[in-house]
Amino acid sequence: MSYIRLIFAFILPPVAVYMQFGIGKYFWINVLLTLLGFFPGMLHAVYIMASRPPGLAKLSGD
């Protein structure tokens, strides 16, 4: 997990998710959670970035 994305996860959670995955289901879930409350959006961003490889990397080895 990149330190820049981690900083964005604490400041603007949807931007951090966008930087790692682009506009997809994780991004829209994070936008919704951030609109419902900043803390749930931040937790989701940190969790999703720590648990999933960025972009298309998950397609290469699994």
From TrEMBL:
Keywords of this protein's UniProt record, alphabetized? Membrane, Transmembrane, Transmembrane helix
Does the UniProt entry include the keyword Membrane? Answer: yes
Residue ranges annotated as transmembrane are 27-50
* One matching Pfam family: Pmp3
> Which InterPro entries does the protein's record reference?
PMP3
Q: Where in the cell is it found?
A: Membrane
Q: Which PANTHER family match?
A: HYDROPHOBIC PROTEIN RCI2 LOW TEMPERATURE AND SALT RESPONSIVE PROTEIN LTI6 -RELATED, UPF0057 MEMBRANE PROTEIN ZK632.10-RELATED
Family per similarity comment: Belongs to the UPF0057 (PMP3) family.
Name of the featured protein: YqaE/Pmp3 family membrane protein
Please name the source species. Answer: Novipirellula rosea
Lineage of this protein's species? Bacteria, Pseudomonadati, Planctomycetota, Planctomycetia, Pirellulales
